[in-house]
Fold:
Amino acid sequence: MTALAILVALAPLSGSAAGLAGARARVAGVAQAAGAAVAFGCSLALLVLLDGRPPLAGWDGFLYVDPLGGFFAMTVAGVTLLAALGSIGYVAAQEDDGELSGFQVRLYFAFFGFFASLMLAALETGNLGLLFVLIEASTLASAALVGLEGQARSLEAAWKYIIISSLGVTIALAGTLFLFYSASALHLGSNLGLTWPYLLVRAHALAPQSLRLAFLLAVVGYGTKVGLAPMHTWLPDAHAEAPSPASAMLSAALLNTGMYAIIRFLAIANRGLGSTYPRAVLLSFGFASIVIGALFMVRRGNFKRLFAYSSVEHMGIIAVALGFGGVLGLYGALLQTLNHALAKAVLFLSSGDVSLRYRTREAGQVSGLLAAVPLTGGALLLATFAVLGSPPFGLFLSELTIVRAGFAGGSPVFPLLLLALLGLAFVAFARTTTGMITGSPPTQLASPYRSRSAVAATAAPLILGLMVLLVLGLWIPAGLDAVLRHSIEEIG
Amino acid sequence: MQSLSQTSTAGVLLDLSGVLILLLAFACLASKLFNRYVAYYGAQSVVLSFAAATAAVAFHSVELWILAALTLAVKGIAIPLAARRLLVTRLALKRDAAMSTGLSTSLIAGGALTAFAYLVTRPVLLPHGTAAAAAVPLSTAVILLGALSMVVRRHTVAQLIGWLIVENGVFLGAITLVATFPFIVEAGIFLDIVAGVLIMVVFVSGLTRQLAEASAGELRELRG
Structure:
């Protein structure tokens, strides 16, 4: 099992190796996709093996995989697979066009592999200090992806991203420090004082004052990476300026990784402090994010910014669900991370195809997508409905669970507010995307792809992602259900 | 781990280093010259490495000695040198004009933040009479001052230095509060800082070049 866990984290480096060896976009993309597929398969196998057994632990707690970590690793590896498939067509088309030089293509795959591998490693460690190190390193790798195009706009977005996120994660380090300090009365060895399972078991004995501070600093710090308002300001710029498959990675993998870190701190805070304080913190940041996300979606403009603000909104929903707590709230929150990741990966990957064909990222200049490019248009339409929480897709089910958790929690004010904000977000988002999908297409649209295989590689992740979303809306496989329940027992 | 008392030699030295680190953060906030930013940051890191060495003597800890040496080499020497060579000299940066508030306003805000740091951390968290009770408010103040200089300065180099000052503040807290993180974590944090500075230097150079080209383009258009 240890070998499997290591393989999950290392397999995505295949793309980096191909990139550093100087492969062209098509070859490096295929290598990246193969590595991601291996990682995804191994993460599935790991989850199956973990069922009904104690978590995998080793190396003084530096390696620790429980159902929660395994579940997030599966999501991230799955998104990496989709984004790697999307990269084949997207980056090859940009290379053929001369938009990206050979050097930039090699950099893209080098950092793409590092980025995925660092996130997966972060999900497999039980040491909260190492978690910080790996998440900060993944910030650096992804900042290079954001600034890849080297234009003034993308460099500015990358700068904003790296400086805000680094500051945020440093605040999370201060939170980690106070958590470590809160355990100093326990006389754990210096490694164990940062090892999550040890701290969880001894949560009652942690000094409550510094634990409160630690939790707040961790939510603010890692919340910066998650894009919780008011720390979200880097997010729309970075998502808009990154190459589309990299945007999919940011939105569907990186944000989840940050949320995972918050969940680790939440579990300790819940046991050590009771649920009142964490609930207040998470509900405040969560609702602030939903409001900000929904309001900024009203403005029409760059469609990648629209999707980015939708991510802010969805991360807010997940934070609110974690705040509601209880079995329903946590179940809904975890399911929502998976569903949102799939829907957002499909949205950003289809936006990549759109921006290649229409040569713009402005929603106002795109029309008639369904007539011009039926597959991408259809995917965008279905993913729009999915991300907005319409049945029969997975997000309907998870959002329904979250609202039910809110009503079960007592006061009906919060779930009603949540429903109202979801309605606002629905109108704001659909208003823009329906304008892109319907209408008459422009007369000349050249295909940006030179080969049939590139077209197929672009279509595959869209179809794959939507199919899984549809399945998750109709039926939750027993294995997934068991994984979610085991995770909740741990956090609860 | 036993905690240092405030009156022991090591405790006094640690607190003194904390005060010096805070003063250097203020000096950076009050300065307008790019090479001063770098110099103050370097001096702050040297003091920080002295603080780590003091704690190493007091706790007989090898890890803290390594930390002190790493701090001196990486933050005290390598990063300031690289920042001066690659940024200040190469990009011919002199006076920082891109500030959103005046110097006096930002200093007053810094003073208020320092008082705030004392108010929040001092009474509740820490046992009285320990070295940490004096040093943790200082380190919180350094974190806030670093963040403040990132906010009031719009130039990328100034923001980079601000982030490094925040990082120093966290380390000061770590040394006095818990002596040290596990070594692997410590080493990882150093690697992150070095990689972060390298990537940021690339971005800063790229941005400065883009801006320079843009202004040169304007000049050409105005001619003739």
About this structure: The first helix of chain B runs from residue 9 to 29. Chain B touches chain A through 37 residues (CB under 8 Å).
